Fold:
Amino acid sequence: MIRFGPAGIPLSCKGRTLRDGIADIHHLGLTAMEIQFIKVNPLSRLAMDEEVAKSPRELLQQLVVTVGNSGAVGAQPTLAMLTSPLKRRDNVTTITTSLAKDYTDLQQTKALARALDVDLTLHAPYYVDFFGSDEARERSQRQIQWAAVLAEGLGARMVMTHLGFYGAVGHDQSIEAITQIVQGLSTWLSQYSKGTVRLGIEPSGHPDVFGSQQEVLELVRRVKGTVPILNLAHLAAREGKTFEKPEDLDPVIQEFLRASGGSLYLNFSGVEIYRPGEFRLTPIKRGTVRFDPLA
Structure:
């Protein structure tokens, strides 16, 4: 089955909530949506008296993503953590997002998407840095994990991410440097979601950011549970290709299809290319890469 849908809430949508967007996608005759979780606003605080003995998922108007004792800030999320009663002096980390107010809100959106047969995926925050300092790596890991917590609550089947600038790590060493990190994220995600959410690795249109076609495919080959995202606009800018003919596209599609295990996830948009690499994404009709050969 082939599904089509937008990344984000359609411009045609009169409302601006996530559920408004899902309903509008259904009314347009589309069957998929890539949710944009662009910005993370975390806040760490002590559990309040009225919250003690309640589980984080029972709290109203709060999206708790981690819990620890008073000295453990930014712990790795676990199902047990988010379903166990809070104790006094627990340190809770909450996030504020337009996607949902609390876990009840997430469940209502999940139910709507399933009722309307809209397949959901979620894009993690764009700014991650796995090749930088220890602090930057830990922050990036938590952002992807928090995105995955939302994805699981929404019933999304995939959370996708870029992996950041090469920094001091050379292109040749980047695969070795990132494999163990992504392996840890994929293992955690499989355990947290009980296998319902997978980790998507997206290519980058910028040559100084990890994510060439071969890097993405090699990483997915090494790490079980990951999925390669075929973003043609990014690849066109990165690889210097315009994919003018169907025969230019077919080998790329087949390679990603094999690496995906037979179910391809593909992004398409217009793109403006200024050497080296991608300048910006654009509406399809204004971009360098045409949709006709793909169709």
Observations:
- The chain has a mean pLDDT of 93.
- The two ends are 15 Å apart (CA to CA).
